[in-house]
Write a structure and sequence with these properties.
By secondary structure, this protein is an alpha+beta fold. It has six helices and 13 strands. Strand 2 and strand 3 form a beta hairpin. The radius of gyration is 22 Å and the shape is globular.
Length: 293
């Protein structure tokens, strides 16, 4: 991640800069002077939580590499939960048999609302857990301002972070924060989290309903961007984690996801209308470009 300079050398550098170049610094930095980092992270976390409660639904494409399997899906967000259609495997459009199987699956989903309701509840549980982890970010780490950097929508504050020894995890999931360090980028204008780039600096226990351990050396990368009209979506995620569950089963998460082609859909769209929308794409030709990077 970030290489920390010798503390003494850093103090000398900033002392000299403050004495010799105050006017130059004021001109060069302007309003990009070091922010009060904890309130900044707290505001950014609040903005993430606020948006998660009232997001506009979008249609987008998800390209995923998981356990050496490569898939591309068209996904439509609805008030009833997400609906997805598999459109490519290994960056190649589905053959006729696979397309028929996918169409049959969607038709069956349309005919059985209870299946979609089960999915919606699972998505809500996942979202609630993610929101709780975001809510804890300001208190879970000690942050340091590292300067400004260019993000997907403009200038960003670049912060490094280390575990806060005074942080008490409220649940098993949050215990992972005790072994995590890295960088957090925050968009200067909208104060939204642009990038979380973290690695595990120690073995950590984790939950998700299963007792287990994640091993030191794993990494988590999440990036998001304004995809239009101040609407932010996750555009890239990469997980590289290993560990054990129940002290027996080996865990190995190696997943990369890229999302693109975001288009808004009607706010009140139900999942059955989303299925009709996806079924209207019958030829699979929209995946000719394969990757979404």
């Amino acid at each position: 991640m970030i290489l920390q300079p010798c503390r003494f050398a850093a103090l000398v550098f900033f002392a000299v800069a403050a004495l010799v170049h105050p006017l130059y610094q004021a001109f060069a930095e302007g309003e990009d002077a070091a922010p009060d980092v904890v309130p900044l992270v707290r505001r950014a976390a609040q903005n993430e939580l606020r948006s998660s409660n009232g997001n506009r639904p979008y249609r987008y494409r998800l390209h995923k590499i998981d356990d050496a399997k490569v898939t591309t899906k068209e996904i439509v967000e609805t008030k009833d939960g997400d609906v997805a259609r598999l459109i490519a495997v290994d960056d190649k459009p589905l053959d006729a048999d696979a397309q028929k199987a996918e169409i049959d699956r969607l038709n069956n989903l349309a005919a059985h609302p209870e299946l979609q309701e089960h999915r919606r509840k699972r998505e809500k549980e996942d979202s609630d857990r993610a929101n709780e982890m975001i809510r804890l970010l300001p208190d879970a780490f000690l942050y340091k301002y590292e300067g400004m950097t260019d993000g997907p929508n403009g200038s960003c504050y670049r912060l490094s972070f280390q575990p806060n020894p005074n942080f008490t995890p409220p649940d098993r999931e949050a215990q992972v924060y005790h072994g995590m360090a890295g960088e957090l980028w925050i968009d200067k204008t909208q104060e939204r989290m642009v990038k979380l780039d973290a690695h595990l600096i120690a073995d950590v226990d984790f939950g998700w309903g299963i007792l287990g351990r994640l091993y030191k050396g794993g990494s988590i990368l999440v990036e998001q961007a304004d995809v239009g009209d101040h609407h932010w979506e996750t555009t890239h995620m990469k997980l590289s984690l290993t560990g054990k569950a129940l002290l027996i089963k080996t865990l190995n998460f190696q997943t990369t996801e890229d999302a693109s082609h975001f288009e808004p859909v009607p706010p009140e769209m139900g999942y059955q209308n989303a299925i009709k929308m996806l079924l209207s794409d019958n030829d699979g030709s929209q995946v000719a470009d394969g990757h979404m990077h």
